[in-house]
UniProtKB/TrEMBL annotation:
<dbReference type="InterPro" id="IPR032508">
    <property type="entry name" value="FecR_C"/>
</dbReference>
<keyword id="KW-0812">Transmembrane</keyword>
<dbReference type="InterPro" id="IPR006860">
    <property type="entry name" value="FecR"/>
</dbReference>
<keyword id="KW-0472">Membrane</keyword>
<dbReference type="Pfam" id="PF04773">
    <property type="entry name" value="FecR"/>
</dbReference>
<dbReference type="InterPro" id="IPR012373">
    <property type="entry name" value="Ferrdict_sens_TM"/>
</dbReference>
<feature type="domain" description="FecR protein">
    <location>
        <begin position="195"/>
        <end position="292"/>
    </location>
</feature>
<keyword id="KW-1133">Transmembrane helix</keyword>
<protein>
    <submittedName>
        <fullName>DUF4974 domain-containing protein</fullName>
    </submittedName>
</protein>
<feature type="transmembrane region" description="Helical">
    <location>
        <begin position="97"/>
        <end position="118"/>
    </location>
</feature>
<dbReference type="GO" id="GO:0016989">
    <property type="term" value="F:sigma factor antagonist activity"/>
</dbReference>
<feature type="domain" description="Protein FecR C-terminal">
    <location>
        <begin position="329"/>
        <end position="396"/>
    </location>
</feature>
<dbReference type="Pfam" id="PF16344">
    <property type="entry name" value="FecR_C"/>
</dbReference>
């Protein structure tokens, strides 16, 4: 079957895709993860099918309730009395679509019932422990603090996606003004500004030169309020960020990012830097253009430079995996449990503790970042790792 020709209902009817959604078949998880990476244009359609799959399967909460599910319920109720009403004679495809979804739903419900029975037996046997209801934790969201040179700290709006830094005026990316500034919305050109996200936060920043930055959780970026008159556009990064650097009208004014002893110099490019202190190395991944790392090594698109203990190594990487955090999902490729839990700790603002021997496994697959932590742990649980949630602490058990 040519999966490129699939529409949403085709995905729902595909048994291999259903097993991928459940995450209980490694071969299907690997296949569909690679297929998505190879065909990114199909991701929105596939994610919609995946979401609808869980809704049909009964794994649904108010915040995940969608128009697709509501439409399905209406169509299904009509099917129960023997018909599906055509609202418009010019839209015969609508009947076909919901008829196919009803068929898909019957398959989904059957598989879901089997999975529920398996998980119930597992829990009764005491082999897995996850508190899914009272101890659940919501995913991260847009949270950041902007600290000005005079020490004033401003909590940026959670309702906004990003902030624009301009020497003349500060504003949000939608053009609205910032509140709580001590002297209007203006700042001194000589000021140094820091934007920081806590664990469980992310934010977008447009720098004074127009460069766009996406900050991941538990990260910060510092820079001057204006690059005017400077020989280099210098910023400091802690944590992780993706950069889309704007070329200046004046040539030969490089853009430089420093992080944990590493210096990355560019002229106009797209790249990601992961400089979390607990990751062991600073990873610079290039998507477009050309960058020089610590004045020694030049990397090309699709390559990653790893800087540790003063040494630099380079390798080809899966750019989709590196950038998954920005696109709204976790992607793992033979990742160990500690690497996975470091990401979960940052995004859900939880501490992680290990009881007993650390499980030795390699996990591959994708998980949406908008799921609650309980749903994420349920997916990981299928790989044989067990969890317990206690307040804002996750205990990992073999």
């Amino acid at each position: 079957m040519d999966h490129l020709a699939y529409d949403i209902e085709d995905f729902l009817c595909d048994v291999s895709f259903q097993r991928y959604c459940l995450g209980n078949d490694d071969a299907d998880v690997v296949y569909w993860s690679r297929w998505i990476a190879a065909h990114p244009e199909k991701r929105p359609q596939l994610e919609k099918a995946k979401k609808l799959y869980f809704e049909l399967n009964g794994d649904i909460t108010d915040q995940h309730f969608s128009a697709d599910y509501a439409a399905f319920k209406e169509a299904f109720s009509k099917r129960q009395v023997g018909y599906i009403e055509e609202e418009d004679s010019h839209e015969p495809a609508k009947v076909k679509l919901w008829s196919k979804i009803i068929v898909a739903a019957s398959i989904v419900f059957a598989i879901g019932a089997g999975l529920w029975f398996y998980q119930t037996a597992l829990h009764k046997g005491g082999e897995a422990t996850i508190a899914f209801s009272t101890n659940d934790i919501k995913p991260g969201k847009n949270i950041a603090i902007m600290t000005l040179g005079n020490g004033q700290a401003i909590n940026l709006s959670e309702a906004k996606r990003g902030v624009v830094i301009d020497a003349a005026k500060l504003s949000y990316s939608d053009g609205s003004s910032l509140e709580h500034l001590s002297e209007g919305n203006t700042i001194n050109n000589l000021e140094k500004i820091m934007i920081s996200t806590p664990r469980g936060g992310q934010y977008q920043v447009e720098l004074p030169d127009g460069t766009k930055v996406w900050l991941n959780a538990a990260s910060s970026i510092s820079f001057p309020a204006s690059f005017s008159g400077l020989s280099r556009r210098m910023v400091e990064l802690s944590g992780e960020a993706y950069f889309e650097v704007t070329k200046t009208k004046i040539k030969h004014i490089p853009f430089v990012v420093t992080s944990n002893g590493q210096e990355v110099e560019v002229l106009g490019t797209h790249f990601n830097i992961n400089a979390y202190a607990d990751e062991g190395s600073v990873k610079t991944t290039l998507l477009e253009g050309l960058v020089r790392v610590s004045k020694k090594v030049v990397i090309h698109p699709g390559e990653q430079a790893q800087f540790a203990n003063g040494q630099i190594s380079t390798s080809k990487v899966d750019v989709g995996e590196v950038m998954s955090w920005k696109e709204g999902y976790f992607q793992f490729n033979n990742a160990d449990i500690k690497a996975i839990m470091r990401q979960i700790s940052r995004w859900y603002d939880v501490d992680v503790r290990y009881e007993g021997l650390t499980p030795e496994l390699a996990f591959s697959g994708e998980i949406q970042k908008d799921l609650s932590i309980a749903r994420v742990l349920k997916i990981l649980n299928k790989s044989g790792v067990h969890f317990r949630i206690a307040g804002r602490e996750v205990i990992v058990m073999p």
